[in-house]
Amino acid sequence: MLRNSVSIFPKYGGQALRDIQLIHRSFIININHIKKIHKNRLWIEKTEIPIGKTYKN
Question: Model pTM?
Fold first, then answer.
């Protein structure tokens, strides 16, 4: 499923690709929708999402 979903991004142009980040092996997010970041978690609206150790910068 993930491979098929990622393959559609190029048709939306370069800006869409810059706003999309892999933050965990199970989560790809649009960084423009982040409401809060704390330690190894972030929130998009009221949904809490973990940030994987590998994906922290």
Answer: 0.66
